[in-house]
Amino acid sequence: MRKLNQKTHIKGQKLLDFFQMPPVLKSPNVCCFVLGESVSFFGSWMTQIALIWMVYQLTDSSMLVGVVGFTNQFMGLIITPLVGVLLDRWNLRYVLITTQLASILLSTALTFLTFNGYINVIWIIIIGTLQGTVKAFDLPARLVTIPRLVDNKADAYSAIAIHSFLINTAKFVSPMIGGLLLAKFGAALCFLVDSISYLPFLSAILTTQIKSVTSNSNEKSNVWQNLKEGFNYTYTFIPVKYILMLQILICFMAMTHVNLIPIFVKEVLNGNAETMGILMTASALGSIVSGLYLVLKKKATGLEKIIAVSTIILGLSLILFSRSSNLEICLLLIFLVGMTNTLALAAISNFIQLILVDENKRGRVTSIFTTGFLGILPFGNLFFGGLASKFGVDNALLFGGISCFVGACFFAMKLPEMEKIVFPVYIKMGLITQQNHN
Fold first, then answer.
1. Is the pTM of the predicted complex or chain greater than 0.85?
2. Which of 4, 64, 100, 218 lies at 20 to 30 Å from 402 by C-alpha?
3. What is the tally of structural domains in the chain?
4. pLDDT interval class at 23 (50, 70, 90)
5. 301, 431 contact by CB (below 8 A)
């Protein structure tokens, strides 16, 4: 009886520890930054939804939806690797202030054009290209900044997990409100809200303390040599190499489902803007669940297994979603898609920031991974836009799900090889002991 009580007490203590607030949340520095950026992401997601819906309403073309998605993100492929070298040299605070001001200007331009009836596909493509250029600097700068907000390196994992959670909370709220605003007031109000949403983050950037990193003067001598070093590190460090390959696959084959949702709603579910908002909200709710799991997960290790399992489930969920025409079943499946898609990508981001022990390469490696996100998405949008136009949106989603599932199985087979390399890094950082490793 005594042993049973002891076991019950241990289980209860473990459950209590799991739900305990991470220490990093007590840092005003981290809270101010991540709360501010979550508000700005709320506006960004709302604008993305409004633009996709507006293009499809203006043109009734799946292909043009893909073209607009391409132009909005293709600059990420061209300049983001170079951005990483610059971020290792530049003042991150000034970079973030500049990107927020540019984002406000572009969203205000969209608001003006839409309110006055001047908006068309050409304007959307031009402003989308400029927004993509801003994102190529903004997103890597945010990720590189977060580990530099904490005093203890062990808290970096929690800070990045909270960053992912709050972004996905914004992702949850924005489709719900965005779909409502689209249906009641039109896209112009969405763009106006977006332009205002950058102000809290701008205030946070000005008030937070960002630790500077000293680098050798020799490392600043040659931009192209620095860029080459970043690519060499990414290619030769096996865990980073396999993770990057999987991220590219997810972004090309699975992440592009977001741009196909408006087409799926109209052609398969015979729905409207509110139906799209409900589906996007269900997807984002899944994202919140996955983000909350990563925040409450105390152990920073084991992310590589989470990445493998979540990507396998993502592929299967997309396959089943593509075969369904029932709204209730689609809501459940898109919830799983949103949950596993976010869990895989957030775990990848956390894993990369965790194992980067050389601060002078953080900007370059982070930018290479951002390239795998921003740079691959436009080609995925273009490819799947054409695929949906030729073979139907349901078959396009089916192809993406199958490809994602096969790639995830290959990645899972490489886990033993990766773990042999990353465990010594975990031991060096004090995340596990040699005894745990054995």
1. no
2. 64
3. 1
4. low
5. yes
